[in-house]
Amino acid sequence: MRSWEKNVRKVVPYVPGEQPREENVIKLNTNENPYPPAPGVKRALEQLRAENLKKYPDPTASELVGALARRYSVKPEQVFVGVGSDDVLAMAFLTFFNSEKPVLFPDITYSFYDVWAELFRIPYEQIPLNDRFQICPEQYFSADHPNGGVIFPNPNAPTGLELEPDAVERIVRENPDVVVIVDEAYVDFGAKSALPLVEKYDNLLVVQTFSKSRSLAGMRIGFAIGSEPLISCLNDVKYSFNSYTMSQAVIAAGTAAVEDEEYFQKTVRDVISTREWMKEQLRALGFVFDDSKANFIFASHPRVPARKLFEALRDAHIYVRYFDKPRIDNYLRISIGTREEMERLTEFLAEFLKDR
Ligand code: PMP
Question: What class of enzyme is it (predicted)?
Fold first, then answer.
């Protein structure tokens, strides 16, 4: 061991889904949107002037923040933006989870939460989902389970299951002394958002992303909406870390995306209808899964191990996500692509499963 190594912060990093280099693959492994961003995004990027890049961007990203505030009917002071929701969530962990009591989140959930907790040395406890992979709200109430904060995705990842609004509200209400973060990365694909609760509970932070429903994973934009005091605390931490998180290109592209409501509604509707069609196909092929409200389906097959399917699909240049983890190692998470991509997936599976 080199002498400096004892002072290194050692972490086991989050592993992002693979970005295959080969062309012509069917990529259903990172829950991207199969459609391009709104046409206005292209125009906004074309109008960027290289000579302006000599200047720093607006540190408050006020154009983007303003567009989001209008879209979600909140004040600009209630909106925080960051470099994808990963950045927003990391800042929120650093800002709000500064307690000696454990932060609570489900055992099966977005696998970045425990990584941030480890990185920031935040104590945490993973609360097991029930055997139908559902969140049990009572297990997150501070009276029975003293905690330093709560975070969960809704719909949950990688299960895609929605926790109904009443249960979300109970978790927020029963934790008045800590911040509750609802990670709504997939909410636009048919689940109900906790945003209406933000006016009622000043300890609720709702986090969303442009990566899925707004087709901008490559641009890296996420945001949080909450009470003014929460957002002000987040900004204090952000300005103590990196003031210029949003580039000129990001601000322009993000604003254009939010302003095209019609395109947003249309692409979301198309993804949902392909998902519902895909559910029928998977069911007919013998897969079992619950009712996903996200842009992916988390499914297993009673006869063929998920790992085997994952490898066979990969050999056929169809990428889905497989997690080699306890309780979920017999499931595939299949993102919803275009109808044509899902048809090709269905054809492959039908052929592969024929004699098994
Ligand atoms: N939350 C959840 C539950 C996710 O699945 C993802 C996507 N990996 C994110 C947050 C982060 O997405 P992004 O940083 O692209 O906004």
Answer: transferase
β-sheet bridge partners, residue 106: 127
At residue 1, does pLDDT exceed 90? no
Q: Which of 14, 29, 86 to mutate to test the pocket of ligand 1 (most atoms within 8 A of CB)?
A: 86
Rounded to the nearest 5°, which phi and psi values hold at 255? Answer: -65, -45
Rounded CA-CA distance 249/247 in Å is 5
Q: What is the C-alpha to C-alpha distance for residues 55 and 2, in angstroms, rounded to an integer?
A: 42
Give dist(CA 186, CA 162) in Å, integer.
10
C-alpha count within 13 angstroms, C-beta hemisphere, residue 10: 4
Is residue 203 lining ligand 1, measured as CB closer than 6 Å? no
Please tell me if the CB atom of residue 184 comes closer than 6 angstroms to any atom of ligand 1. Answer: no
Eight-state DSSP code of residue 63: H
Which alpha helices (H) appear in 47-164, and where do they start and end?
62-71, 84-96, 113-119
Buried b (16+ CB within 10 A) or exposed e, 109-136: bbebbbbbbebeebebebbebeeebbbe
205-252 pLDDT, tens per residue?
A: 999 999 999 999 999 999 999 999 999 999 999 999 999 999 999 999
Per-residue model confidence (pLDDT) at position 91? 98
How many Cβ atoms from other residues are within 10 Å of residue 44's Cβ? 20
- DSSP string of 309-335? HHHHHHHTTEE-EE--STTTTT-EEEE
